């Protein structure tokens, strides 16, 4: 039911040209701006500091909250600790009523969105208006929507829509001229500022040591909210606490740079106590009333969760949204809650509902892009996967999936014989080299993408134990992965050719099986653990120096996940570590040990697609380019070479509409490069991109780097 | 009107500040002394063609004698009743304590209600700063306040360029709720 609604939202977002246009433009402008803002800065060092500050703060949340409250009270503020959203709202309403305020102005505060404060005040106090004063927020408020982005709430709207909304509000006929529209907002809101009895704002940082609240804004509405009305209420979540005043430094260095590509926002305000104000009659008040509401509302529960505690390192810069290929296509509203994007999925789980979040995690592609940009150094994809696991744990898997995962995937012989049968059974469906139905996680309807056929003969039947004539340089175990074994055996054969020329002895352990990533993605980690043990056992017996694979995701799983799965299992921990130490991706291995390789010139122009897991998880992107160069290939880079192709394993099946929208962008860029061939280093990406090109009728061939290398070998 | 002085140890920092602040649409001037500052501010007021200027009393506004400037320029110059006066003045003048070269930012204690009202309500803000108070970067500025935490101002403000927004279609527009022009006058 809920999933159906989500799908509906996705489809309407994908068909909204305004939305995809605005988000696409922003997505393209964001990265260069961010890059420039960070010039001369050490992002790695800054994020490490932020991680330390914020994880310490999470560990000492209660202590810091007490210290903050004490200090802020000493400075003259009134501090209220709210456990729940309801408590926070009641307290704020009480203050509003005490002052008999008619107009309340607000400066952007996600926390107040989180608890739906505006509505509550309108219903439960005598106020006539609660006006959002951030331009984007005000637009959203006037048309009764929710913000779609934490930093740019109205990014999904066009100037025409804004002109229409403002025309209605001001009873004028306004042109869609942005400068003029901004002026209209200034004049309108100015009146509200001047008659407001109370200002409510959020906070970006709360310093325990000094009781200081730090706020960043660009428009100046934050300064007006904290200055003009004689009463100021600050609503701040416990996750904004940091211990020391000096901790403000690194956060302030990263927040604007990561959020909007600015070195700093126009205004940064640090409030450490009540200041003088002028009341509505023009009298000077020596000390205004300053209330600080420190709100929990799910944050300590998050802190108490060993995995999700990490999410408290978030500084709300929204860069995880800005770089997310899914967000760029569907915008924030499909997330259906206040916080959107990757971090939004996680926050929704704790601040709103776990159910909803369990559904939202389906939106994540696991391209890992957000993780490399997050200044809080949060492993967002891992947390989203954990949400998935918990949802499955609670609700169970659908019967079909459960059966496949538990009964088929863990039984290698059965699994492989099914694949073999499929290669025969598919015959009626194969048209040319293209098929519409594949078993298991490759199955399902696809739109705008042809699927490859299962090979007549898997790789395991074509290659075996290769021993070079001269003394072998090393003994290499070949890990094929499901796609490499049963769909693209030609890639494996090419790899054998290259490795053989390098003077390697090569072994294909027949007991090897699926790496387990589909099981993890579906939320069945116990199945993945079983597969890990099977694979480790299969390779252990052979006395290998290295284990090489053409699939970056398999390498990631074999090298990093297995150790993690088995770290608490004393009997297996060491075995997993030994195994992992030998695993290496193909380009790195050849770049390191293939100096003796001789190539003839290929005279081909190739463009290169960086696979998400190759580039970001394994940090390999120079190596394949160097190898292609050596093979005499001329590289012409395509636009957005490291942007996700939309595959994401089972994602392309689960969320075919989004997957296809992301793929389309890739295909356009790939074709625009004007190359003779598209090279890449991942069988999954090949399935996606080659399938997309095929369905489009494009003639651009897609090859794994290893195939080009094998072609260029000088024998 | 602004003079470029040579062989001053602050030259490098000033130049860096000017470059960074101008890149975000601030207007930056530097004058040798209070007399030159007085002339420059008078000229700015005359060019604006406003008839009301508000100011926040401070050491620098006193040394350049804003009241005399008001007379010279023929405008009402006041720091009274600012909820009203600042809202319809054409210009606000206040002093800021420091400038940060790396990011073109001004920093100061804005606890007094006057200093805040005059710097946010009028469409133009003239900020007076001592050239000797330019600091290299943000972290050193924070460290400076960190060294005297007991005296942390209740309202510490950082101002970088005029007010701005990109909320409609990501198109940058200068001047929203705060001033649309920020004119910075460094006094040696
Ligand atoms: S999770 Fe990281 S990238 Fe996303 S908003 Fe938080 S700090 Fe920024």
Automatic annotation (TrEMBL), chain B:
This is Lactate utilization protein B/C. PANTHER family: LACTATE UTILIZATION PROTEIN C. Residues 15-187 form the LUD domain. InterPro entries: FTHF_cligase-like_sf, LUD_dom, NagB/RpiA_transferase-like.
């Amino acid at each position: 039911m809920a999933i159906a609604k989500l799908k509906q939202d996705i489809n309407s977002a994908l068909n909204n040209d305004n939305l995809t246009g605005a988000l696409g433009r922003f997505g393209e402008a964001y990265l260069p701006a961010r890059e420039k803002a960070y010039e001369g800065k050490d992002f790695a060092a800054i994020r490490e500091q932020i991680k330390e500050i914020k994880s310490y703060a999470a560990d000492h949340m209660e202590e810091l909250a007490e210290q903050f409250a004490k200090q802020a009270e000493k400075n003259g503020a009134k501090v209220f600790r709210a456990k729940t959203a309801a408590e926070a709202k009641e307290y704020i309403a009480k203050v509003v009523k005490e002052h008999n305020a008619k107009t309340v102005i607000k400066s952007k505060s996600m926390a107040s969105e989180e608890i739906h404060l505006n509505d509550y005040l309108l219903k439960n106090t005598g106020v006539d208006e609660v006006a959002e004063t951030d331009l984007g927020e005000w637009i959203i408020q006037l048309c009764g929507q929710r913000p779609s982005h934490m930093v740019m709430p109205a990014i999904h709207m066009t100037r025409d829509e804004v002109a229409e909304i403002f025309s209605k509000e001001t009873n004028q006929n306004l042109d869609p001229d942005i400068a003029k529209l901004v002026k209209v907002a200034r004049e309108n809101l100015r009146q509200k500022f001047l008659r407001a009895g109370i200002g409510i704002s959020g906070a970006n940082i709360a310093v325990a040591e000094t009781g200081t609240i730090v706020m960043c804004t660009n428009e100046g509405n934050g300064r007006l909210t904290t200055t003009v009305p004689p009463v100021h209420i600050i609503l701040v979540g416990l996750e904004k606490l940091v211990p020391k005043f000096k901790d403000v430094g690194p956060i302030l260095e990263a927040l604007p740079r990561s959020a909007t590509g600015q070195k700093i926002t126009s205004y940064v305000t640090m409030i450490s106590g009540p200041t003088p104000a002028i009341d509505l009659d023009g009298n000077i008040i020596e000390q205004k009333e300053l209330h600080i509401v420190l709100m929990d509302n799910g944050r300590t529960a998050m802190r108490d969760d060993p995995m999700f505690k990490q999410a408290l390192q978030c500084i709300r810069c929204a860069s995880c949204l800005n770089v997310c290929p899914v967000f760029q296509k569907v915008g924030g509203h499909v997330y259906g809650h206040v916080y959107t994007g990757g971090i939004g999925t996680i926050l929704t789980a704790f601040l709103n509902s776990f159910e909803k979040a369990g559904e939202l995690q389906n939106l994540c592609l696991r391209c890992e892009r957000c993780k490399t940009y997050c200044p809080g150094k949060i492993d967002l994809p891992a947390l989203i996967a954990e949400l998935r696991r918990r949802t499955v744990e609670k609700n169970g898997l659908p019967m079909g999936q459960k059966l496949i995962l538990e009964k088929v995937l863990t039984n290698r012989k059965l699994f492989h014989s099914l694949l073999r049968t499929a290669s025969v059974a598919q015959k009626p469906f194969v048209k040319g080299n293209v098929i519409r139905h594949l078993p298991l996680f490759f199955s399902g309807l696809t739109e705008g993408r042809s699927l490859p056929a299962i090979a007549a003969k898997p790789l395991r039947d074509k290659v075996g134990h290769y021993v070079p004539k001269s003394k072998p340089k090393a003994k290499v175990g070949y890990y094929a992965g499901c796609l490499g074994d049963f769909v693209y055996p030609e890639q494996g054969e090419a790899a054998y050719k290259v490795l053989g020329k390098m003077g390697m002895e090569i072994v294909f352990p027949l007991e090897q099986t699926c790496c387990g990533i589909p099981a993890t993605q579906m939320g069945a980690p116990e199945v993945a653990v079983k597969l890990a043990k099977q694979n480790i056992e299969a390779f252990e017996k052979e006395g290998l120096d290295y284990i090489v694979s053409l699939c970056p995701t398999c390498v990631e799983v074999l090298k990093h996940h297995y150790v993690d799965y088995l770290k608490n299992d004393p009997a297996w921990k060491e075995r997993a570590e030994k195994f992992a130490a030998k695993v290496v991706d193909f380009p790195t291995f050849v770049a390191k040990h293939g100096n003796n390789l001789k190539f003839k010139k290929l005279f081909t122009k190739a463009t290169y697609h960086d696979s998400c897991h190759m580039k970001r998880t394994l940090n390999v992107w120079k190596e394949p380019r160097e190898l292609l160069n050596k093979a005499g290939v001329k590289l012409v880079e395509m636009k957005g070479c490291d942007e996700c192709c939309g595959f994401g394993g089972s994602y392309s099946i689960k969320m075919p509409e989004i997957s296809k929208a992301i793929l389309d962008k890739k295909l356009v860029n790939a074709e625009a490069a004007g190359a003779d061939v598209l090279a890449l280093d991942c069988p999954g990406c090949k399935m996606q991109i080659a399938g997309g090109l095929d369905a489009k009728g494009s003639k651009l061939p897609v090859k794994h780097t290893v195939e080009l290398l094998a072609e260029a070998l000088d024998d | 009107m602004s003079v470029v002085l040579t062989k001053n140890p602050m030259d490098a920092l000033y130049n860096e500040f000017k470059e960074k602040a101008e890149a975000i649409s601030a207007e930056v001037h530097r004058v040798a002394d209070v007399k030159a500052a007085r002339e420059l501010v008078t000229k700015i007021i005359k060019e604006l063609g406003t008839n009301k200027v508000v100011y926040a009393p401070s050491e620098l506004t006193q040394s350049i004698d804003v009241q005399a400037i008001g007379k010279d320029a023929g405008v009402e110059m006041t720091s009274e009743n600012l909820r009203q006066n600042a809202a319809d003045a054409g210009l606000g003048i206040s002093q800021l304590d420091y400038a940060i070269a790396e990011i073109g930012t001004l920093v100061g204690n804005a606890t007094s209600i006057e200093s805040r009202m005059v710097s946010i309500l009028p469409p133009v803000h003239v900020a007076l700063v001592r050239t000797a108070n330019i600091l290299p970067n943000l972290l050193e500025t924070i460290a400076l306040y960190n060294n005297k935490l007991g005296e942390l101002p209740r309202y510490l403000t950082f101002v970088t360029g005029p007010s701005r927004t990109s909320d409609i279609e990501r198109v940058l527009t200068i001047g929203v709720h705060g001033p649309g022009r920020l004119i910075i006058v460094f006094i040696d």
